[in-house]
Structure formats: structure tokens, C-alpha cells
Design goal:
single chain, 98 residues, alpha+beta, 38% helix, 14% strand, disordered N terminus
Length: 98
Amino acid sequence: MTGFGEDWLNDGLDVPGADSGLWVAGVDYIAGWREAREAADRLNRALLGVGLELSAVRAVASTSEDGRGVVRLTGWPDVVDRLADLLEARANGAGGAV
């Protein structure tokens, strides 16, 4: 998910990339990353939908050591607090927990 050009991933929030860990020969990291990317894109669209800026909080696709997809949420503490408030209001509202 882009929207702000290709630089939106590098706008002040340090997110370790695939080169920050060990790669194991024979492990299919791409399939896990693709699955994580789809989930991260969906979450990023939801974050935008509630008025949060992806430069302040966003989901990032990654993989575990065994190639399993992982979605990490990264953001500035004050914006993550706002997101927590939104989720708590949703959990305490008529809709209950998801």
C-alpha cells in the first residue's frame, strides 16, 4: 500500500527490513511475506479510514525465521495510544470484542 509515493516507509519510523535478520536456505520467505503484505495492506486501509496517518502508525509485512508471515504494527507512541483508545471504545461499545 503506497499512496504517498515509495518513500512513505522511510519517513522517520525505523522498521527493520528483511536484511536485518538471518535467511535460511530453502525457506520460502516470499509466500509468507505476501500473506503478511495482504493483511498489512488491509490494516493500513483501516488505519487511514479512521483518520490515522501512515507516517505516524502503520502495519508492516515481515516474516519469521521459518518463513511464516508476520505483520508488525509500528508507530509513534501518542498515535498508538489513539489507536488503542479507538479499539477500547469499540470493545466496550455495542459491538463488543471482535
